[in-house]
Design brief:
This protein is mainly beta and 221 residues long. The chain contains five helices and twelve strands.
Length: 221
Amino acid sequence: MKNPIPILEHRTDCIVYHAQAEVSNEEAAGWIGGNAPAFFDDENKNNLIDQQQAIPIHRERSGYLFYLSLRHPFQPEKMISIFIPKDYDEYVEHNIYPDCAIKVIEHPISPESSKDTFTNPSLIKHSISRGDVMGDRESMELPFLIKVGGTPRLIQQEDYYTTELQQASFSFFLQVDEEGYPETLLAEDGSYPFGFGALYVYAKIEGNEIAKLVAGFWQFS
């Protein structure tokens, strides 16, 4: 989808994705759980697009866990990868922009690494299905793993979550919602990274330009 305007400007439609245990690489839009993209292997770390966000992942490698990677819905040469601190208390304390501890990084398309450096033991790898365009209102009533565009489905309706994002001219880009986890995604002794909640990613959006993705905030139920 080359023109993001109907999804990101008019907000009447959105793109939804689901996690599935068995999807071929050709049909998948990414993956959740498993190993991080090979792009984050040591030998590639100097090529990272956003050094400011990526440096902590490599300096404190044991402090971050891989969460998911998604092919960028509007820029087919890119992926979006999300990492979370290993220490739950750290991202509970730092859960809102500009102090959100979650890392959202854009990078070139990359296969899954053979290294388990950042692998989250709580998550069993699942593929992310190709996105389907649907009405924003309809999406509010259905479970999904990821929703791009439209309006966010919030767990807590509090203005302070978005105050600084709006002041910095960020707009809602995507949501990852744990309500959309299949039963097979969590390991037997695993726990929900966001407490059966949701992560909200924001971006600078001007016309067809989408830049500077950040973790806006996360909420739990």
